[in-house]
Write a structure and sequence with these properties.
Blueprint: H1 7-10, H2 14-31, E1 38-42, E2 57-62, E3 69-70, E4 83-89, H3 98-108, E5 109-120, H4 125-132, H5 147-156, E6 159-167, H6 176-181, H7 185-192, E7 199-206, H8 220-226, H9 229-243
Parallel strand pairs: 1-2, 1-4, 2-3, 4-5
Antiparallel strand pairs: 5-7, 6-7
């Protein structure tokens, strides 16, 4: 069987359509309640994961033809603090410098800006298929990143995790018939083995510590000892005024 030569091509397969349906549903629900002005989707310009967003400016950016902005992921051509929402649908596991991409995301996001990431879970049946099977073609040629590792990266960059979930609990079967038969595993997976979904979604917010004025805690007893002459001087001035 020929292998898919791109992630977009793989998403047209039965396996890919199985994932895409859950991916689109999660992004639709997640972006609808995030407010701002500028939203960008990195990668997969063939699929509009920002369609439910209410932000006035929404666009796709990638290095492949079809994106509204052509660019390299490691050097985003956006002004610092200019983006309110960034989507990264399976960007990190297919790039040689995932941490650099996250650093760029942190740079271009405004304070309290949002980033939503989707990735393949190495601790799942999909991760087991990659570990024990051929790593030729998509998505098996990618470097699946553990959720704990991704959380550590985001924490180091000052992000706070505010949401997320897992999906795609069925084995990565090629046959649509068997994928349909395993449909019962979706609700069961959410309940019984939630961390073993083939795909995870993570929603994080960029936090910027604010400045807080720290007032000195004056010790009244110490102040009176340091300034004993002040009351005496006041009394002398008052007495002189009366004598005059």
């Amino acid at each position: 069987m020929p292998t898919a030569n791109s992630l977009a091509a793989w998403l047209d397969t039965h396996q890919g359509q199985y994932l895409l349906a859950r991916e689109q549903d999660y992004f639709d629900r997640s972006v609808a309640d995030i407010f701002g002005f500028n939203a960008v989707q990195l990668g997969l310009p063939e699929h509009d994961f920002l369609r439910a967003s209410r932000m006035p400016l929404r666009f796709t950016a990638a290095h492949e033809v079809g994106a509204q902005v052509l660019m390299e992921m490691e050097e985003l051509p956006f002004e610092t603090g200019s983006v309110d929402l960034a989507l990264l649908p399976h960007v990190l596991e297919f790039n040689k410098h995932p941490h650099q991409i996250l650093r760029e995301i942190e740079r271009v996001l405004r304070p309290e800006g949002n980033v939503i990431i989707s990735g393949f879970n190495p601790r799942s049946l999909w991760g087991l298929r990659r570990a024990m099977g051929s790593k030729v073609g998509y998505p098996w040629c990618g470097e699946f990143i553990t959720l704990s590792r991704l959380k550590d990266w985001l924490a180091l960059l000052g992000f706070e995790i505010v949401g997320g979930r897992f999906a795609c609990y069925a084995p990565p079967m090629i046959s649509p018939k068997w994928l349909q038969r395993c449909h019962f595993m979706e609700p069961a997976g959410d309940r019984w083995w939630a961390v073993c979904g083939g795909v995870y979604y993570l929603h994080a917010v960029k936090r910027v510590p604010g400045m807080r004025l720290i007032k000195p805690q004056w010790n009244k007893g110490l102040v009176s000892k340091l300034m004993p002459a002040a009351p005496k001087l006041n009394r002398e001035v008052s007495q002189r005024s009366k004598d005059d």
